[in-house]
Structure formats: C-alpha cells, structure tokens
Automatic annotation (TrEMBL):
<dbReference type="InterPro" id="IPR002401">
    <property type="entry name" value="Cyt_P450_E_grp-I"/>
</dbReference>
<keyword id="KW-0349">Heme</keyword>
<feature type="transmembrane region" description="Helical">
    <location>
        <begin position="12"/>
        <end position="30"/>
    </location>
</feature>
<keyword id="KW-0256">Endoplasmic reticulum</keyword>
<protein>
    <recommendedName>
        <fullName>Steroid 21-hydroxylase</fullName>
        <ecNumber>1.14.14.16</ecNumber>
    </recommendedName>
</protein>
<dbReference type="GO" id="GO:0005506">
    <property type="term" value="F:iron ion binding"/>
</dbReference>
<keyword id="KW-0560">Oxidoreductase</keyword>
<dbReference type="InterPro" id="IPR036396">
    <property type="entry name" value="Cyt_P450_sf"/>
</dbReference>
<keyword id="KW-0472">Membrane</keyword>
<dbReference type="GO" id="GO:0005789">
    <property type="term" value="C:endoplasmic reticulum membrane"/>
</dbReference>
<dbReference type="InterPro" id="IPR017972">
    <property type="entry name" value="Cyt_P450_CS"/>
</dbReference>
<keyword id="KW-0492">Microsome</keyword>
<dbReference type="GO" id="GO:0042446">
    <property type="term" value="P:hormone biosynthetic process"/>
</dbReference>
<keyword id="KW-0503">Monooxygenase</keyword>
<dbReference type="InterPro" id="IPR001128">
    <property type="entry name" value="Cyt_P450"/>
</dbReference>
<dbReference type="GO" id="GO:0004509">
    <property type="term" value="F:steroid 21-monooxygenase activity"/>
</dbReference>
<keyword id="KW-0446">Lipid-binding</keyword>
C-alpha cells in the first residue's frame, strides 16, 4: 500500500498493472459498486478497476496515520477497495465495539492471505486462522494451557524473574555506559518465551537462542515490509525475495520447533506439564480436530506475538521515562514505599503499584503495539453503524485513532499516566482503551503479556535509574511502523539506584 514499502520488482509490477487498467472499462467499477448498493450511504474512497483505492492511498504516512487523516475527512466509518477486496475502516470506539463485541461472531473471520498462510501452515494458528468449529476447539485448548501459567500460578513469575535477574546482571556490567537496550531486552524476552514454550533456558550467547532470535527477526522484518501478493495472490508467479526469505525463516523455525515437539512427546508425563508444549499435548483429546500442526503453530505464534510486542512496549516505556524524568522519579518512590529493596517485586504487588500499572497502560494507549488490528472479515451479511455489510467484507479497526480520539481522551497526544487513575489513586480502565482488542478474537495471550510487562518493568526500576547519555538526544517518539509500532533505536545510560 505504501510505495516506500515495496521492493523494486513489486514497484515495477505495480506500474505495469496500472497500464493494464486500460484493458478494463469503467463497467467493471460501476458493476462492483452496484453489487454493494446497501453501502451507498457510506463515504467510499475513489477506486479504479483492479487496483481499487490503492492509487488514492499512496502516501508517506504509515497506514494508521493515513487512515486517521482520512477518517477526519470522511468520518469514523468509510469504505475503500484494497485491490478487489471491499474494506471498511473503523476509527471510533463505539463502532469498534460493534465489530469486536456486539457483533463479534459476525465479524470474526480472517482474510486468506499468501504470507499468513505461509507463516501458519494454512491457518493452523490462533491469530490468523478463520473462525470455525476447529478454531474454537483450538482456542479453548490454548486458553486452558495458558491458564497454567497465568494469574494464580507461580510458574510464569519464576520464569520471568530468572530472566530479569540475568538481564540485570548484563545491565549492571555496563552501568554508567551508553547502552542500546533493544538487543538486550529482545534477548531477555525471547528467553522467557523459550522457557515458557519448550522449557529451554539459554545463556546469553547460546547459538540456539541466537537462531531463535534470528529467524523470528527475519519473519518479523519480512512481514513488516508488506507484500502486494496478499492483495493480488497471482503475483506469486513473479520472483519475490521477501517471500523467499520468509519461506527460509519459517523452514528454520519449524525444524527447531518440530524437534522440540518430538522430544516432548517422548518425555511427557500426563497431568504434569513442564511448559506450554506439554500442556498442549496433554490437552489433546483427538475429537476436536486439533493436530500436531496446530500445536506447532501455537508455539510459533508465541514467539511471533510474544517477543516483539513485549520487548517493544518495554522499549517505548523507557523512551517515555527519558522524556518524562518526573514520572520515573514517581515510579521509584512508589516501588521504594510499597516493595522496598529487600526483595524482588512479585505479582502480589500489582494492586500496591497502581501508578506503575497506569504507566504501562498509558504507553500501550499512546503507542499501541498494533495500531491497526489484524483484519476482520464479515462471516455473513450483517450491519455496522446502521449500514448493511455484505458477507466477505474486510474490516480494519484503527486502534491508533481510537486511542487518540479527543472526544474520549483529553489531550490525547500527551503522555499522561494519571488518566488511568481515579481520584483515590486506584487503577481504572477507560472504555476507549482496547490495546488487546476485544470479543471472540481478543488476544489470547493478554494475561501473560500483562504479567510479563509488570514484572520486567517493576524489577528494572527497582534496581536502576535510566537517563539520556551525555551529548545524546532524547529518543524519537514518532516510531517506525512494522508488524508492531517500534521506537527508533536509542541509547540510554543505566545506573544502579542502591
């Protein structure tokens, strides 16, 4: 969609396709508009045959900002054609909740795309798989397996605290120096997911850990570039370096995870799961249609979703603390008062640390990891905002616009953690806050992500003070779009507090 994201072959193909338009008359476009007559009251971006609205969408702005700009002109619900795909863009919380919650099952479908099929063995994961009976069985299995590591369980806390201890040792070794936190945090969070998923704990320079980091990074970077084959699948006939790299990374990933799965089958003790793979294998009943492929793709998704989002949110948090040192001082004071220095923070401290929780919430509001949710698809003819929506319509929910809507957030572009606290200083969750989505397709790992973020941030701030290195600039807060919205790389000085 953004020309800057296209490789040279894709750009060439794109312009060749423009010339092909001359072979198609306006009859094609007019006929398509008639087929959606129930939507005529909705603002629709200009479209042309084959390409749809893509020419109109060319912009240097990332999609979430472009759609926010278009929403201010056309309203919080407008339509466009992504190539041949009729698509609605939602930029207001009431409409988003209609899609995600009130008509959640109507809009629970997922589009079939080349890259996600490659990534998930044809939709055998949770996030990208279409909504059906098999998906519901798979999700129930994943939820019950995740519950073994969620609230009320000490397993995830032990795993995270061990990783934090190793992370703090790394940071202590380079105290007073200028440090790029990105690779250090990425390694620590990856280690958490490795231990959670298949029980392996790695030293910092273990080659297998580096292999996991490399293939995960390769997948994320490739998907982040965007690909026209997801809009026009027939473009697969042309050479595509991104698809080749994606296939290579997925092959390395699947080989490693298959080895881990087979090892777990041989050593599995029923009803005594050591990790997520054990829990998934123990939960298989053979009746729901869930297979080894589904288990492998669940494990793969834990890396794809869990590593990037958690590490990115922590990087954004530190970046904002550098911009707002008074917020960091307040966090230090809260930790000193409620936890002290004689022990590590634990999950039981969450209610005692409402300001820390509010800081995490504000970071996820102002810089959501997923500014636009994974596309939804109408499973049947339905309605949205009083308009008819035909079956097969794609729907994009612009979380960025919802989290920056001045009708619901006072001065939304300002970093204000107190907006998540009531007059008594207790944590609240405003109704326009949807960082993990909602409804049937809500993020299945939400609880685990919140636990990780709380433990990482509380332990880091208990021990360290973060500041801007001498002579360096404050971090750029605009971000760089990708699979998740990441901050630009920055350096930080880390000093022990006690």
């Amino acid at each position: 969609m953004d020309m800057a994201l296209m490789s040279f072959p894709e750009t060439l193909i794109f312009y060749c396709m423009v010339s092909v338009l001359l072979l198609f008359g306006l009859k094609c476009t007019l006929g398509r508009r008639r087929s959606f007559r129930g939507m005529t009251a909705l603002p629709c971006l200009p479209s042309v045959p084959v390409l749809g609205s893509l020419l109109h969408l060319r912009s240097t702005l990332p999609p979430y900002l472009l759609f926010s700009k278009l929403a201010s002109r056309h309203g919080p619900l407008f339509s466009l054609y992504m190539g041949p795909h009729y698509t609605l863009v939602v930029s207001e919380v009431a409409l988003a909740k209609e899609v995600l919650l009130h008509r959640g099952k109507d809009f629970a479908g997922r589009p079939k795309m080349v890259t996600t099929d490659l990534l998930t063995r044809g939709g055998k994961d949770i996030a990208f798989a279409d909504y059906n009976t098999l998906w519901r069985s798979h999700r129930r299995l994943v939820q019950s397996s995740f519950a073994l590591f969620g609230e009320g369980s000490s397993k995830l806390q032990t795993i995270v605290l061990d990783a934090v201890d190793s992370l703090c040792s790394d940071l202590q070794a380079c105290r007073g120096q200028s440090v790029d936190m990105c690779p250090i945090l990425m390694r620590a969070v990856t280690n958490v997911v490795c231990r959670l998923v298949f029980g392996s704990s790695y030293e910092p320079h273990d080659p297998e850990l580096q292999q996991v980091i490399d293939y995960n990074d390769g997948i994320v970077r490739t998907i982040a570039r965007g690909s026209l084959v997801d809009i026009f699948p027939w473009l697969q006939i042309f050479p595509n370096s991104d698809l080749t790299r994606l296939r290579d990374c997925v092959q390395i990933r699947d080989k490693l995870l298959t080895t881990k799965l087979e090892e777990h089958k041989l050593s599995l003790t029923p009803r005594e799961p050591r990790d997520l793979l054990d829990a998934l294998l123990s939960g298989l009943d053979g009746d729901g249609g869930v297979t080894d492929d589904h288990i492998l793709m669940t494990a793969a998704e834990a890396f794809g979703a869990g590593v990037e989002t958690t590490s990115t949110t922590l990087l954004w948090t530190i970046a904002f603390l550098l911009h707002y040192p008074e917020v960091q001082e307040r966090l230090h004071a809260e930790l000193d008062e409620c936890v002290g220095t004689g022990r590590l923070p634990s999950l039981s401290d969450r209610t005692s640390l409402p300001f820390l929780e509010s800081v995490l919430c504000e970071v996820m509001r102002i810089r959501p990891a997923s500014p636009i949710l994974i596309p939804h698809v109408a499973m049947q003819d339905t309605r949205l905002g009083g308009h008819e929506v035909p079956k097969g319509t794609r729907v994009l929910v612009n979380i960025w616009a919802i989290h920056h809507d001045p009708a619901h957030w006072e001065k939304p572009d300002q970093f204000r953690p107190d907006r998540f606290l009531d007059d008594m200083g207790k944590k609240i969750s405003p109704p326009s806050y949807l960082p993990f989505g909602a409804g049937p397709r809500v993020c299945v790992g939400e609880s685990l992500a919140r636990i990780e973020l709380f433990l990482f941030l509380s332990c880091l701030l208990q021990r360290f003070h973060f500041s801007v290195p001498s002579g360096a600039s404050l971090p750029d807060l605009h971000g760089r779009p990708g699979v998740v919205l990441q901050p630009q790389r920055y350096t930080v000085t880390v000093n022990l507090r006690h």
